[in-house]
Amino acid sequence: MPKAIWNGAVLAESDNCEVVEGNYYFPHDSINKAYFKNSDTHTTCPWKGLASYYTIVVDGQENKDAAWYYPETKEKANHIKNYVAFWKGVKVQA
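Structure for DUF427 domain-containing protein, as requested:
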């Protein structure tokens, strides 16, 4: 079962991930919300849409904008709507 781990904490775990462009996208209900803080950061992908970000906080350490998701997607990306992906040192064990 794929897991997203940072600073020793399991951030997300699910058998229902979607892999897009080499990134594992975890269903929103599989994330451990205690580690996620909303961010004001947004970026745009030409085919997925507008991305929103979370800052990850584990044991007082912050990893700014280390997770992203698409609250609204363009049609080709509907299968990852609200799914959460990671970067910035977050390890995904598949």
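Strands lie at 3-6, 9-13, 18-20, 23-25, 36-45, 49-58, 61-69, 84-86, 91-93.
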